[in-house]
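Slide 14.
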Amino acid sequence: MVQISGNTFIITGGVGGIGSGIAVDLLERGAKVVIFDILPQAVGAEKVKDLSKDNAIYVQVDITDSTSTKAGVEKAVETFGNLKGVVHCAGITIRRDWSNDVADSIADFQKMINVNTVGTFIVNAHVADAINKPLNHAPERATKPFWTTDEERGVIINFSSAAAHGLYARTLTYGPTKAAVAGITRALSDFLGPSGIRVNSVSPSIVASAMSQSNPGIFDYFLKDLETHAAFPRKPATPKDISHTIAYLIENQFVNGEDIRVDGGWRLVTPNVPGEKDFRELAPGLE
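Slide 15: predicted structure.
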């Protein structure tokens, strides 16, 4: 099975929020981590330097750009070697005022699908190829049309979302982009199976991080929703709750092609209650 200790993992979107918490957890478990984010190199490096003096680096990467992502993966291999996988946290959500016209959401959808969905495929592709490269491009394998192995070589973990399950009105554009992430995960788990690379995803609900709590109005709104519609626990997850799941997915070689919900049994609903205020007046915008 893939061990965390002594191996290298890329974490996208790793400067803040969930990604930063996962980086801390993997470092504590003995991993080397390479943080990808869109911040300028000097700014990102300054933020990452306190994580670890010797076992963490920052690389500015635009995950929507194949060339940028490939260069970042190559930097990870060059710096630490022994690349075993990626935890792909990077993504965006765009919130705007409600509108009756669906076409008003087209531009938001195009931007989010480029980052959340296309970006996921780009990251997965370059990490998988980097893991396979030293093993599959050796001269003795060059005559074989396809690569097959019984050894476990690596693991890819993507981030979908609770919003991808039972798609609902408040995530008109964001939810479908995250549902597509789960689809990419299942497709690549099958494609990369012969190469010994597992692919899974996680679907968190609301996570209590500095990033999510930076907008109290939105955070408080979803906190009330969790208290109303989650099973247990009826509260936001913490980055540590997510990182425990990540460690499990890295180390359990029999979990493959799955999406793990880390949501306290939160089932999203669109509350249209006759006689009460329209939920669109209560929700902090449309995603």
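Speaker note: The helical segments are 17-28, 41-48, 66-80, 106-136, 174-191, 216-229, 239-251, 279-282.
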